[in-house]
User: What shape does this take?
Amino acid sequence: MKFKSLIAAASIAALSAGSAWADAHMDKVKVGMITTLSGGGAGLGIDVRDGFMLAAKMAGNENLEVVVEDDQRKPDIAVQLADKMVQSEKVDVLTGIIWSNLAMAVVPAVTAQGKFYLSPNAGPSALAGKGCSPNYFNVSWQNDAFNEAAAMWANDNDVKNVFLMAPNYPAGQDMIAGFKRFYEGDIAAEVYTKLGQTDYAAEIAQMRASDADTIYFFLPGGMGISFMKQYAGSGVDKAVMGPAFSFDQGILGAIGDAALGVKNTSHWSKDIDNAANKTFVEEFQKEYGRLPSLYAAQGYDTANLLLSAMEKASVTDADAFRAALKEADFESVRGKFRFAENHHPIHDIFMREVVKEGDVVTNKIIGTAAADHQDAYGGDCKM
Amino acid sequence: MTTILLIEQILNGLQSGIMLFLMAAGLTLIFGVMGLINLAHGSLYMVGAFAAAAVAAATGSFALGLVAALIAAAAAGALIELVVIRRLYDRDHLDQVLATFALILVFSEGTRWLFGSFPLYLDVPAALSGPVTLPGGILYPAYRLLIIGVGLLIAVGLFALIARTRIGIQIRAGEADREMIAALGVDISKLYTLVFALGAALAGLAGAMVGAIQSVQVGMGEPVLILAFVVIVIGGIGSIKGALVGALLVGLTDTLGGVLLPLGFGAFMDQSAATSIGSALASMSIYILMAGVLLFKPTGLFGEG
Assistant: This one.
């Protein structure tokens, strides 16, 4: 008997919870986050998730519900998850994808089904130009942005001859193309390495033999760690530059002192002087016990953009909600932030330098590389 | 390209070949003696690197880290041999592949659970962190010379072990006829555990030594595992000598191919086209080498029928 009444009590509780949920659903926004939480690139996805969740927690908005799933960095799994979230979870907004190839597999399909997609990382050129969509908002950057800004900085700072290196895959070629679009000096060599290569002795020997004054490279994740450690041990003393991906907080700890002095471009740094950023850096450390990375900052901005739109419009009214997103009426941790016509950011890109603060290797801003930077593909976007 | 640069690249090729040998030696030993395809060999490499990074961070000593890598990888190897691998000797190769692939997943998630998702810090000892000047004015990182030295020492030790010791005789006998040496009173299951632990220790040592100049992260073993399989196919499955020759061939082809092919194409075509075609061909070079070897010697360079 006791058992039966327990069940009865539980089902009554469940029913009442269910009806309360139904009442509030008018303004509820359900977010499906597909991100990488296992495998080699898991650090990035975890940071995006943690940044997003921190903003959600700080806002305390009970109408925001988040479902998180792991895509394992595999496009097919990301597509399955997106289908599941749209069909059975009935989410209103999707976000979370880290990698360009996964974004290309998921974003066009979900925006075509009328769902919103907010990109917290990765901005393939196709989605900024011909493939742009009214329901797609990029809160991070277009892939070329950091490289274009680095090239502008190089022109202004007496960089005369560069050695370019990136992995031989579409994002690697895009990054180098972005740099070359604005760079005015000489190019000593342009080397494409194998994706996932771990030993760079051969390339470092070429760098030593070349007459370049600066090495510019894009090697995300473990590849960058390997290269920097080997470069430091080689005794080659040319300046090193690159986009922020290889010098992010999650990676610097593994490179250590070998990264000191490296210049890298980023739209965010923990020392950007504004109130939103100070709060973010402080709260993130308090919550998770580590320094935030730029991925965490992007996750945090994405959540705050969404929350700002929720204040203004109901997600059931897609046109009003889209207009509210477009306004970008939130305090971005990077400072100035607005959307261009193709729903990609117009923001400042900074030049940072890797320094040591006490025992911690981290980044410090040394100047603005490109003010109010906008991507080059907006002209192809017809929406 | 200058002679100095060429010599430096040859040294780089030797060094990467020697590291591959440490991986491939264990793999080929295990396959030769027990007939087992062990996909989890890359996980043992990762275990070595993580153990070295953790111990080096706690004690500040790289040498202690190396010792810890040897012990941890050998212990992990012995453990999986006793718990899982032992049940697979009589099974089909496909079952072995399936079970050892499962072990990769278990090791990867286990490591993530223990150490987190961010790469660990492991650096070369300060005394070896800079370059040394070799005869002819070649600047070469001291640590890489150490890797070449240690690898060659281990190769010599391994040959001595196989050719001159009682255990070596048993290992060779086990390769030839496992029922016969069991009938002669050798404890075959103990021998298998020992060989497996030895192979694991070599992989762990390679992981720790390479981890100091690369990235210590989950999944670091799998790319090396693929190369190690290429090495043992080229060298002949089960042959230590084949593993050494195969590893050096692969290391040199990989390194020199990446440098010389783009240069070679640059001689008769536009530089940017040469770079992309050369890089693409360089990625294929070791597989072309493997196909070429198999065409003329289907069992590998030192393989037996």
In short: Chain B has one domain: 3-296. Chain B touches chain A through 53 residues (CB under 8 Å).
